[in-house]
From TrEMBL:
Belongs to the Nudix hydrolase family. CDD domains: NUDIX_Hydrolase. Residues 15-143 form the Nudix hydrolase domain. InterPro entries: Nudix_hydrolase, NUDIX_hydrolase-like_dom_sf, NUDIX_hydrolase_CS, NUDIX_hydrolase_dom. This is NUDIX domain-containing protein. Keywords: Hydrolase. PANTHER family: GDP-MANNOSE MANNOSYL HYDROLASE, MUTT_NUDIX FAMILY PROTEIN. Pfam families: NUDIX. Its cofactor is Mg(2+). The keyword Hydrolase applies.
Length: 156
């Protein structure tokens, strides 16, 4: 391949979207999920990464914005990739960070403009509440937390 000016080369690269979420559990190993008011399904607290924002910063920001929790995040549990699908014209990268364990009695303050409800659920129930690709992240995240090794889950 011939040398190309950097600004031309960078413009030629494919783009993708990126989202960052947080796995928070309680003392019974139940997972904290949120029910966005703009979706039919539950999700991990988190959301889209803003331009120039590192994934872990986005995850912490979204956690605070959505349910008012300010938690020091632990390590990266899951990296996931999905191809363009439906209305999404580009691939998406997902980052799931460890938010540790909190008391099930912790006060969460869902942002009424975005979040209908937040609650803790056992992993087996999470798998039924989450879309299939997200349910895979829940199972992988719990295993990654136990093993200390990040999971990579590309959807091919």
């Amino acid at each position: 391949m011939a040398w190309v000016e950097p600004e031309i080369w960078y413009r030629s690269l494919p783009t993708f979207y990126a989202a960052a979420d947080v796995l928070v559990t309680d003392e019974h190993d139940r997972l904290l999920l949120v029910k966005p008011n703009y979706r039919d399904h539950w999700a991990f607290p988190g959301g889209m990464i803003e331009a120039g924002e590192p994934p872990h910063v986005a995850a912490a920001r979204e956690l605070t914005e959505e349910i008012g929790l300010k938690i020091e995040l632990g390590g990266l549990l899951v990296v996931d990739w999905a191809p363009p699908m439906g209305h999404r014209p580009s691939a998406i990268m997902y980052f799931l960070f460890d938010g540790g364990s909190v008391s099930s009695g912790i006060t969460v303050d869902p942002d009424a403009e975005e979040i209908e409800r937040a609650a803790f659920f056992p992993l087996a129930e999470c798998v039924t509440l989450l879309p299939a690709h997200t349910a895979n992240r829940a199972t992988a995240a719990m295993a990654a937390r136990a093993s200390g090794r990040t999971a990579y889950l590309p959807v091919l």
